[in-house]
């Protein structure tokens, strides 16, 4: 085994923070090399120790769909992609039932996801209803557009424990969103007492190691409850489709590198979409999905790309994980 690579991996495992160049060296490894398998082995150890051996499944309900002016090229809701041509908001009854079904199936947290088009007050009201009806104490998480401190405080008051938010690859280039807006949202969430979940995403073959490392560091500096990596899903006919899509083995390698780049005190390491390779390589968080989905081209992803809680559990068990019962440990209020 390459001595330099082993030293980098062991440095992280022993609690030291990796430098950008060291993280890049991990990303550059051949995915079928001895060093890559050692990386996955130590990343898995780190994840197991960080979460006491219990992986989590989080359930997400997409509450609306339709053309979005943020125009993220990788998103099926982008107005420019012309996939969803009319605005649609799911009924409150549908949203509530999907959330309760995910909870009953064993999801450790429930997310409500909305496009930037959805009125913020309407989202708050949905959240209040769902939070009131959840029965097991699982945290309610918001996955929405950028927001101010006042809006963050309103989310907290409405019963949200945390938010999912990411500074995406290609921000400001393949999206109409400025990176500084993302970072201001991170700050607003923290000041309001909302726990942040984040991720390096959406990763495609077009992204350089430098870009990926940059976003790893942005995510870790936000001190989230979890980090991780998500691949860009190719949406046929869109501008990014010519690049193709990364394979699950390559993504598992990146997931392991993210774990090594992330401080030990951050317990979660996610991969999306759910897959066994990623879970073997240190991912301890998967998502089940219902309703709308920015990686899908149908209204109800549970009938298409979206996995349910049972399938996510099968994947984790196949990868040798135990699955947490009860509320998430990644969104414990500080």
From TrEMBL:
InterPro entries: Aldolase_TIM, HydE/PylB-like, rSAM, rSAM_sf. It comes from the Bacteria. Signal peptide: none annotated. This is Biotin synthase. Gene3D superfamilies: Aldolase class I. GO terms for molecular function: iron-sulfur cluster binding; metal ion binding; transferase activity. The lineage of its organism: Bacteria, Bacillati, Bacillota, Clostridia, Eubacteriales. Keywords: Iron, Iron-sulfur, Metal-binding, S-adenosyl-L-methionine. Coiled coil: none annotated. Residues 51-269 form the Radical SAM core domain.
């Amino acid at each position: 085994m390459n001595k330099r690579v082993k030293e980098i991996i062991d440095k992280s495992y022993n609690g030291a923070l990796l430098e950008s160049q060291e993280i890049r060296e991990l990303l550059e490894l051949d995915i079928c090399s001895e060093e890559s398998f050692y990386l996955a082995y130590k990343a898995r150890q780190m994840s197991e120790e960080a979460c006491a051996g219990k992986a989590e499944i989080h359930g997400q309900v997409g509450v609306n769909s339709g053309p979005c002016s943020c125009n993220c090229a990788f998103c099926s809701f982008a107005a420019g992609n012309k996939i969803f041509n009319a605005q649609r908001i799911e009924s409150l009854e549908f949203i509530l039932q999907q959330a309760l079904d995910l909870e009953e199936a064993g999801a450790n947290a429930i997310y409500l996801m909305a496009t930037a088009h959805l009125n913020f007050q309407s989202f708050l009201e949905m959240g209040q209803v769902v939070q009131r009806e959840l029965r097991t104490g699982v945290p309610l998480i918001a996955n929405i557009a950028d927001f101010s401190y006042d809006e963050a405080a309103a989310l907290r008051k409405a019963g949200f424990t945390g938010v999912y938010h990411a500074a995406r690859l290609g921000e400001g280039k393949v999206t109409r969103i400025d990176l500084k807006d993302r970072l201001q949202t991170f700050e607003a969430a923290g000041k309001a007492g909302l726990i942040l979940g984040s991720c390096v995403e959406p990763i495609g073959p077009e992204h350089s190691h430098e870009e990926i490392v940059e976003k790893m560091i942005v995510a870790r500096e936000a001190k989230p409850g979890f980090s991780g990596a998500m691949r860009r899903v190719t949406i046929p006919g869109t501008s990014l489709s010519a690049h193709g899509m990364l394979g699950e083995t390559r993504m598992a390698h990146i997931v392991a590198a993210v774990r090594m780049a992330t401080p030990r005190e951050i317990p979660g390491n996610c991969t999306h979409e759910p897959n066994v390779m990623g879970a073997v390589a240190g991912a301890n968080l998967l998502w089940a999905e219902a309703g709308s989905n920015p990686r899908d081209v149908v209204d109800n992803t549970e009938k298409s790309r979206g996995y349910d809680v049972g399938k996510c559990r099968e994947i984790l068990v196949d990868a040798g994980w135990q699955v947490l019962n009860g509320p998430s440990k990644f969104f414990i209020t500080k």
